[in-house]
UniProtKB/TrEMBL annotation:
Residues 4-115 form the VOC domain. Gene3D superfamilies: 2,3-Dihydroxybiphenyl 1,2-Dioxygenase, domain 1 (3.10.180.10). Transmembrane segments: none annotated. Pfam families: Glyoxalase_6. This is Enzyme related to lactoylglutathione lyase. Keywords: Lyase. It comes from Mycolicibacterium lutetiense.
Amino acid sequence: MTLSVEMITFDCADPDTLADWWAQAVSGSVNAYAPGEFVLVQRDGGPNLGFQRVPDPTPGKNRVHLDFHTADMEAEVSRLVGLGATETGRHNFGEEFNWVVLTDPAGNAFCIAGG
């Protein structure tokens, strides 16, 4: 038996708004299975992103986050900040591997690496 990642799900207070934001960020399409409760962002090549309403999202630092790679890290960071993301840090392992940590409008951390 082989497992494949079908979806990464975010617990949140407002799944409709957060799904709309992520759909713009990853060029996905929104499918509101249960508006206000569970919304899916479908992406070509997956995995899909799910957003489910919970009464009390987990406080503190995410234990799981998304990592993205792009040829032009600075342009992508600028685009995402323009959509409403917040840059929270920059890191590297020498000059060969650099990444930027951002948060989405609900405070979920994700990273953009480039090069």
